Amino acid sequence: MKQYVSTRGGVAPVGFEEAVLKGFADDGGLFVPTAIPRISPEQLKAWAGLSYPDLAFEILSLFIDRETVPAKDLKQLIEASFQDFEHPEIMPVVPLPGDEGLFVLELFRGPTLSFKDIAMGFLINTMDYILKRRGGHLNLVLATTGDTGPAAAYAAAGKSSIDCWPLYPEGMITDEQERQMTTLSEGNIHAVGVTDCPDGGDDLDLIVAGLFSDAALVRDLGLSSVNSINWCRVLMQSVHYVYGYCRVCRRIGDPLVFSVPSGAFGNLFAGYLAREMGVPITTFICANNRNSALHTAFSTGVFKKRDLVQTVSSAIDIVVPYNFWRFLYFQAGGDPEKLAAWMDRFHKEGEVRLDQETADAIQRGYASCSVSDAQTLSTIRATWEADGYLLDPHGAVAVAAARELRDQLKREAPVLCMATAHPAKFPGVTARALGGKDLPPEACHPALQAAADLPRRGAVHSLEELKPRLIAGMKALKT
Ligand SMILES: Cc1ncc(COP(=O)(O)O)c(C=O)c1O
After folding, report:
1. 382 phi and psi angles, rounded to 5 deg
2. Domain count of the chain?
3. For residue 258, what is the domain's CATH number?
4. Phi-psi region of 81 (alpha: psi -120 to 50; beta: other; left: phi over 0)
């Protein structure tokens, strides 16, 4: 049986079903597979022409036993998870004609218009499938910087096995994102705006981690997490690297660079997984905004917590990219004690200096940079004027980073930049970037316009009162 262990090493191995339902391991660590399966070049060639759902089926089958999810059910779960995507290819690749060798992978064609839809639908459908089979109910508690919350709320809406509690930092996400969570009428969605969070989503991550550190509470309330803490999210996100690679590279084996706007490192960890499986990705560009803990780690070997800076690419305003621990676990050769020592130092001192060997290892196959708001805005404007293509602020961070680092990478390969959200979610930033002109039709989306007139529901609590209020809310549902 395919098994998963905790990065903290404190629990017995579990199967896929437990890893998905629990989210966090019981010792507070993150689940990782005991072995990463390999895809041979021949296999990759055979898969190169597959549709996205068919490719997802092949890759997920490497990680999920048939006894846990039979092939027919896995196919159905995947089909159901992508039926609301608006593009027949699910995630089209678009060349930027003004920039030879630069491509955009549009990951935002799902129902809530961000790349979070790609894995969230499948994760929540799979949770529901398992819960219906074995009986049970979960309270999904998640922190969002604006996109995870809408994706989870949409996927969970109306599911009787699940209540979903998206927590967002009030005033630090766009009105469009807030409405995607607060205008759903289904009674199992309980969006909570949280005031007084100086570190935004990171403050909420801490509340979520705090809830999960209390094993009795987790059991009593049936808590689980669908942040990219959950292994299933990361696993499904590895598929778009394989798919993107096969779409851009004419010959399997050709080099390719990915540029990824990065916050919590969930998406980039999925890229690591795809490369470990055997996809010949030459370099990952880790594109940070001014919240640049990852860029600092890659370029100096020091993983460091700094104060949050609010930027125009607000979804990646993240101070502590928690999936970086998963990456470091593998860099430490799967040694939970080494990882625990780094984590303890980080929590006590706010930083950890990696040993030279690890600092060198994490640089292999990675480049990074920190993109300013001015660069993000000018990239949106320049790409619109030169290519007639409208980027959202996060896609713009990826494109700006690719343009900055291409010469350093000696233009060795095409670059596939991840566009992780639709620009319609950020009309204020688009207007600033385009210089106050009327917004073009590309900056709007009917799904967001439809939500504009719907009544809102949901609660607002301060960070201080959040935990007891949440617990009381969940207990009240039980009675
Ligand atoms: C639009 C957008 N781009 C990029 C990211 C960063 O992804 P990750 O947190 O997996 O690094 C997020 C989410 O946090 C997002 O919402």
Report:
1. -65, -40
2. 1
3. 3.40.50.1100
4. alpha
Ligand 1 pocket check for 265: Cβ under 6 Å? yes
Decide if 449 is inside a domain: no
What are the phi and psi torsion angles at 397 (to 5°)?
-60, -40
Considering the chain, what percentage of its residues have pLDDT values greater than 70?
A: 100
Q: Which of 402, 352, 372 is nearest to 309 (CA)?
A: 372
Type and span of the H or E element at 72 = helix 71-82
The preferred substitution site among 91, 147, 173, 316 for testing ligand 1, maximizing ligand atoms within 8 Å of CB, is 316
Contact 143, 227 (CB under 8 A): yes
Regarding the beta carbon of 178 and ligand 1, being less than 6 Å apart is answered: no
Interatomic CA distance for residues 191 and 50, integer angstroms: 37
- Quick one: tokens of 169? 């930092």
Q: How many residues in total does the chain contain?
A: 479
Closest CA to 192 of 207, 209, 214, 212: 207
Average pLDDT over residues 171-200: 96
Q: Is 366 helix (H, G, I), strand (E, B) or coil?
A: strand
**Token reading at 84:** 């609301």
Q: Under a CB-based contact definition with an 8 Å cutoff, are residues 271 and 238 in contact? A: yes
**161 domain-assigned:** no
User: Which among 238, 261, 248 is positioned nearest to 415, based on CA atoms?
Assistant: 248
* Domain span holding position 423: 93-113+232-444
pLDDT value of residue 173: 96
Q: Give the pLDDT mean for 84-96.
A: 97
Whole-number pLDDT of residue 177: 97
